Amino acid sequence: MISRTERTLNHFVLVFVSILVIFPVIWFVLAALSPDTSGRIDLTNLAWVNFVTAWNLGAFGPAMLASTVITVGAVAGQTVLAILSGYAFGVLGVIGQKIIFPIILLGLMISSEVFIIPLYYQFHAIGLTDTWLGLIIIQIGMGVPFGAFWMRAAFRAVPPSLVEAAKIDGARSWRILWQILFPIARPAVFTLVLLSFMWTWNDFFLSLVFIADPAKQPATLALGVFQGQHTLQVNLMAAGSLIVALPVLLLYVFFQRHFISGVISGAIKE
Question: Which Gene Ontology CC terms are recorded (predicted)?
Answer without folding.
Answer: plasma membrane
